[in-house]
Amino acid sequence: MVVGIFRTNICTQQDKLTIINAIRTRFDSDCTIDIEDCDKVMRIVPGSLSVAENDIIQFVGNMGFRCELLD
Asked: Do the Cβ atoms of 30 and 45 come closer than 8 Å?
């Protein structure tokens, strides 16, 4: 994955920070989430390790949020 772009249901600033910190810790990847966008777009740029899109989707899902690839 070069840059992963996902649709989520992350709505609050607190949830946004929680997810960003968890992804940075677990996947060593840079993450941004635009909670103002209608699709609550999350962008992930992997660090030194390759990250599979399905791993991100499952990880965010396990944290209680919807996450799917944005077409």
From this structure: yes
CATH number at 4-69: 3.30.70.100
| Bridge partners of residue 27, in order along the sequence | none
Per-residue pLDDT tens for 3-29? 889 999 999 999 999 999 999 999 999
User: What is d(CA 50, CA 65) in angstroms, rounded to the nearest whole number?
Assistant: 23
Per-residue tokens: 67: 């996450």
Instruction: Give 69's strand partners.
Output: 6
pLDDT by residue (tens digit) across 48-70? 777 899 999 999 999 999 999 99
Neighbours of 24 (CB within 10 A): 14
